[in-house]
Fold this sequence. Notes:
Blueprint: H1 2-5, H2 9-21, H3 27-56, H4 60-74, E1 85-86, H5 92-123, H6 135-157, H7 166-171, H8 173-181, H9 184-204, H10 207-212, H11 215-230, H12 242-245, H13 251-255, H14 260-285, H15 295-312, E2 318-319, H16 321-329, H17 336-351, H18 361-375, H19 378-385, H20 389-404, H21 407-443
Antiparallel strand pairs: 1-2
Helix pairs in contact: 3-4, 3-5, 3-11, 3-16, 3-17, 3-18, 4-15, 4-17, 5-14, 5-15, 6-18, 6-20, 6-21, 9-11, 9-18, 14-15, 14-16, 20-21
Amino acid sequence: xxxxxxxxxxxxxxxxxxxxxxxxxxxxxxxxxxxxxxxxxxxxxxxxxxxxxxxxxxxxxxxxxxxxxxxxxxxxxxxxxxxxxxxxxxxxxxxxxxxxxxxxxxxxxxxxxxxxxxxxxxxxxxxxxxxxxxxxxxxxxxxxxxxxxxxxxxxxxxxxxxxxxxxxxxxxxxxxxxxxxxxxxxxxxxxxxxxxxxxxxxxxxxxxxxxxxxxxxxxxxxxxxxxxxxxxxxxxxxxxxxxxxxxxxxxxxxxxxxxxxxxxxxxxxxxxxxxxxxxxxxxxxxxxxxxxxxxxxxxxxxxxxxxxxxxxxxxxxxxxxxxxxxxxxxxxxxxxxxxxxxxxxxxxxxxxxxxxxxxxxxxxxxxxxxxxxxxxxxxxxxxxxxxxxxxxxxxxxxxxxxxxxxxxxxxxxxxxxxxxxxxxxxxxxxxxxxxxxxxxxxxxxxxxxxxx
Length: 452
């Protein structure tokens, strides 16, 4: 420890903290790599957190709060080293329905209960259980969420209000298109959103540009600049004070925990957030050569983060694959990178939230349409179609049920179908084994002969 004492009290304390978070090796190079990665992730986190909050039907500030908690708290806890947690598009549809049904105060209770449930499951060492949830169910839930997200953001592309239910949104698309063609402001908003999606797709194909500025940030910045220069009549984000947006749940909100619908929503939050985090952790582990994820500890870390988010009335969090992948590819080596990105996000949310007020809503909607498209398991469907038709059926049924009803009922439908499929396959396997045994017994019999 003497090596730190000569640096002065402040720098000595900083190096003690970072030495605990960093893997063994040269502290300087590792810290520089983590600082660089944290800035890259921060630049991605700002527009995506704002967009997810918008899609969830809550103030933009609450998305930033969840991102801050994901960096400063969950990022500091053990479990994983590279994964970045925050508000995720995969939970946006479920949060939107929960806010419609129970309000912002009810959302805080739901997220708080989800966090405590996750911590309990992690302490019981049930983290690996979530990885046993059938992949077809998880993919179906993501696909259904992606479809709900896309249909909802199509209305935001035209600065229009989206209908409440999934069927209403699908049925209103024709009217949305005709109404947009007849309205110059809606056409301007649609042009901004479509332009954002086009630039996002093109920017991702330019490796040098993507390394310099993340594609979502580049697309949103360009759309904001064009909108300001041309003075387009489009809606922009409404951003208020961070502390005013934080509304902890109170007594009447907690009494709702006795309602069956609320408990069902908590279970849906827990299933989607936990399975998404742990599946995402497994995917991100393949991108780096650092320590592998401890699923029980990671579940506890996610639960601790969601508990705090619930106490603040913010959005639920989960591992975000987009940000985690960017963190790994930017050269992150330890937990320092995600703690630092939470720090940059906190500084931005306190000092510069007014910057978001210049961002067109249609631009963020365009980014979210692309994110929703990425949730659709197109490649997985192609692989499952040959020889795994039962998995395809479960996936499609789960996604359809989510679009037509809500994420919780969709998850129940998927799990029931997966259970029926597993039972059918077990019955067929036993029947096949029985037929093979009978065949072997017949082949081993001696022919009967009569004695004369």
